[in-house]
Amino acid sequence: MELSPRVTRIQPSPSTAAAQRVRELRAAGHEILDLTVGEPDFDTPSSVKAAAVEAIDRGETKYTPVNGIPQLRSAISDKLLQRQKVRYPVEQITVGGGAKQVIFLALMATLRTGDEVVVPAPYWVSYPDMVLANDGIPVVVQCPASDGFKLTASALADAITPATRWVILNAPSNPTGAAYSVAELRALADVLLDHPHVMVLTDEIYDEIWYDDTPIASLVEVEPRLVDRVFVTNGVSKTYAMTGWRIGYGAGPSELVAAINKLQSQSSSCPSSVSQSAAVAALTGDQSFVSDAVAVYRARRDEVVKRINDIPGLSCTSPSGGFYVFVSCGEVDDEKFCLELLESQRVAVIHGAAYGAPGHFRVSFATSNAVLTEACERIARACASKG
Ligand code: PLP
Questions:
Q1: Which residue lies with its CA nearest to atom 8 of ligand 1?
Q2: Any atom of ligand 1 within 6 Å of the Cβ of 203
Q3: Which residue, 7, 122, 304, 325, could crosslink 355 as a Cys pair with Cβ 3.0–4.6 Å?
Q4: Is any atom of ligand 1 closer than 6 Å to the C-beta of 123?
Q5: Is the pTM of this model over 0.90?
Q6: In whole angstroms, what is the distance from residue 74 CA to residue 56 CA?
Q7: Which residues, 6 or more positions from 290, have their beta carbon under 8 angstroms from its beta carbon?
Q8: What's the CA dihedral at 220, 223, 227, 233 to 10 degrees?
Q9: How do 137-142 and 164-170 pair as beta strands?
């Protein structure tokens, strides 16, 4: 079959491919310790599940408004007020089938052939391919460990050209867990103020999975003059263990949100009605699920970081947020190392090149302590056998 260039120029998501490989090996009878997981190992809170059942019983099983039910957009507006210190009117909020779909539609709504999108590396695996699928050019900017894996103001200034349409900032980052301080955002904002043609997409899907004492900073709070050029994306997947419910959202300039709604009206029509009611319950209900989950993640993070740094040849910093540790394996070929780890020790991790950062691999600690402890021991064994 002849496929479109937009499909042939992209790759399937490496994280989805890794998950598939784990499934295949398990189906063949192998016991695999899976550290590739990009989702909480907790169940969705029971109050959220109950809200979905109630929505079904009330007959809320039909199409909803394209951009999501008003109650959900109002709950999102409250959440954004708390987080960004900006009151987004509900008309400037759109709900889609996961943050992934919202980001994809934002790029589809804005990119013209050859438009550039600045993607700081290490990046979430999907950004470059999403840009390519929508006829843009990903401009990958390497952000080394010495810069905390973060985009600096001077690297941003160097990357911007007249063709730049977007800069994507993801904090806390998948895969590094890094997030920008107020001072770092201030410096980036100063560059952005000099380049009014550039929009910023801030992917904040891990914002509630946060370990530092200082609250996570927000670009629009640091520089309110950027509010009309920032598109904030987030969702309920990671915070409330709701990856399968597929609810994400975006907030930003009216024209962009209207364009996304137009695309959604001609593609999925609307997000799942039942999932939207569940998301309202998640956002407006008791938030103790989140703090309890963060406490568990924090203990795992500390344990994994310690164990990894005890292994000769490996090193990592402690992530400020999210549930991943990005490990340096020095000069070792990361892809080969990860393959050997899987074949010889039955431990699955994702190689750094998938995130635009060879010489690393990503460990997810969204799994049980027992699995993490055993996996770290096996990783140590794999490293020892390499000498
Ligand atoms: N952004 C980042 C950085 C992610 O890691 C993920 C999921 O892995 C997403 C967005 C997508 O989340 P959702 O489930 O809302 O589509």
A1: 38
A2: yes
A3: 122
A4: no
A5: yes
A6: 21
A7: 208, 239, 240
A8: -30
A9: unpaired
Q: Which residues pair with 225 in a beta bridge?
A: none
163 phi, psi to nearest 5 deg: -90, 0
| Residue-wise pLDDT tens digits, 197-247 | 999 999 999 999 999 999 999 999 999 999 999 999 999 999 999 999 999
**CA distances (Å), 226 to each of 110, 115, 116, 182, in order?**
18, 21, 19, 15
In the chain, beta strands by DSSP E: 33-34, 93-96, 116-121, 137-142, 164-170, 199-203, 230-235, 248-251, 324-328, 347-348, 350-351, 360-364
Say if residue 298 is exposed, middle or buried (CB neighbours under 10 Å; 0-12, 13-18, 19+): middle
Q: Ligand 1 within 6 A of 13 CB?
A: no
Q: How confident is the model at residue 387 (pLDDT cuts 50, 70, 90)?
A: low
Query: What is the identity of the amino acid at 169?
Result: L
